[in-house]
Amino acid sequence: MRRFRIAFSFAGEKRQFVEQMADLLAEHFSKAEILYDRYHRAEFSRSDLAFYLPDLYEQEADLVVAVFCPDYETKEWCGLEWNAIYGLLKARKVGEVMLTRFNKVEGKGLRGLAGYTDLDDISPAETADLILERLALNADKPADYYLSGRHKTKPIKLQAAIPNNLPRLQYFFGRDGELQKIAESLAEDARGWGALIDGPGGIGKTALAVRAAECVPAGRFERIVFLSAKERELTADGQRALGHFVLPGYLEMLNAIAREVAQPQLTKLADLERTEAVLRVLRGVNVLLVLDNLETLPETDRDQLFTFLNRLPRSCSALVTSRRRADASAVTVRLDKLDWPAAEQLLAEMARDNRLLNETGGAERRSLYDETGGNPLLMRWLAGQLGMGRCKTVAAALAFLRAAPANNNPLEFVFGDLLDSFSEAETQVLAALAHFTLPTTLKLIAELAEINELAAEHALGGLAARALVVPDTEERRFVLVPLVADFCAAAGRKQSRPPAAGWSSAPML
Q1: Number of H helices and number of E strands within the chain?
Q2: DSSP code, position 502
Q3: Of 166, 247, 244, 240, which is closest to residue 207 (Cα–Cα)?
Q4: Is 269 exposed, middle or buried (0-12, 13-18, 19+ CB in 10 A)?
Q5: What DSSP line would sit under 43-88, residue for residue?
């Protein structure tokens, strides 16, 4: 087995183009499997590199991609690499070399008889797709083998080894770091009551909580109890109320816990006595509570429930999905966008039963991912529009997303009920943040918002608590959650009032 799936030979003048290709291909495989110099800096810092490097091209790569340009032949290192590549061609290993070029440049010694992929009018993403097709064809696989994600590991369907009432997960990919952090929070020697999973709407908090519960080793708990306060869900056809499945308040949650631990008589006790009675029962059992969507509870009920969790006996633990709280005696797991390799697997899995999605290439799927900010719910909704035939292309589905009707607006579902909750300072801070795509300092945000730093800091704290703004680990820099600015601008127009400055036309830096 060779060390590299793909090796690049190129002149420095085309580094930006090649680096974008390398990064995309590394997400399919890994950086270790791509021969691109910046991925192997330590290894290539050696005195005999001129002898070492050609052997990698000639012996250790499944596919060598030569990127010709007017400067290629003048570069000493390109000459060394081309000697090795040309040796492959002379040895009739033509399948192991893919010739690409800018400006119709011919490879030295090929005498105008070779076929090339011309790069002048195609993007790095499109070129990466072509490289993946070639790699698949070399291995006698369908051309879309890598593009469709069929080379990826299939999802593992876990079933908790502990009695439970967990809902079934249709898909789950990635989140290894978060799962490890949650596993540590549920260890017998953990100091808190468990983990609080925080993140914007649709980012996958519930799925992560369920998968983490499924991964709990047998014998750790006697039972896993799942309860949800979620009032509605989003499908490709629009929002759907969950009706009688909803637990709308603290006492309803408490009653459900009592029933799940076989103590239904506790539901008849007076309110204060009921809390103490349920806690006493839990001291004698070993239960994991998975409490979902607590942010939908009224504030007083939510406060009562977190007080209850902070008094949870050490024999029990809990996983909670909600907005973050400073008073929770638990590990906070902040959930961000799904990373591209996991999202790619998710899209590939959905494409199995979705003809139009299955016909899309890697560049289209990456566009879908980028436009949704890696939000799994939005990706599933967009895929649903293709699956139902409502939209024929990813571009059309994205256009529909931006102008979705009120009864089927995923942005409303994810970010709804926000505008009326903003203070004046929060509105100004959101408008300032809409100028940036990278984390920005408190000082600069305050200057753009035209408020003092203390007011800006307080506003950012409120926005972060609602998962609209993401702070860095030290809470010194902040960035807006993707699509929030567009949603606020659209909502402002809908209410026939101008959106805050910067929401609709701010230059993104």
Answers
A1: 20, 15
A2: T
A3: 166
A4: middle
A5: HH-STTHHHHHHHHHHHSEEEEEEEE-TTGGG-HHHHHHHHHHHHH
List of residues 6+ apart from 263 with CB closer than 8 A: 277, 278, 281
Cα gap 131→21, rounded to integer Å: 9
For 292, the enclosing helix (H) or strand (E) is strand 287-292
**Separation between Cα atoms, residue 245 and residue 229, nearest integer Å:** 8
Token pair 């070492």 is at which residue? Answer: 52
> Which of the 8 DSSP states describes residue 139?
T
3-state secondary structure of 334: strand
Edge-to-edge order in the sheet of strand 287-292? 223-228, 287-292, 317-321, 194-198, 331-334
In the predicted model, residues of the chain with pLDDT beneath 50 are: 150-151, 153-157, 159, 495-509
If we measure between CA atoms, which residue out of 348, 345, 319, 353 comes closest to residue 333? Answer: 319
- How many C-beta atoms surround the C-beta of residue 159 within 10 A? 9
Give Cα 417 to chain centroid, integer Å: 24
Per-residue model confidence (pLDDT) at position 154: 44
DSSP H or E segment with residue 480: strand 477-480
Q: What is the DSSP letter of 324?
A: -
Tell me the two tokens of residue 328: 């929770």
Tokens of 291: 């409490």
Q: What b/e sequence results for 309-346 when a residue is b if at least 16 CB atoms lie within 10 Å of its CB, and e otherwise?
A: beebbeebbbbbbbebbeebebbebbbebbbbbbbbbb
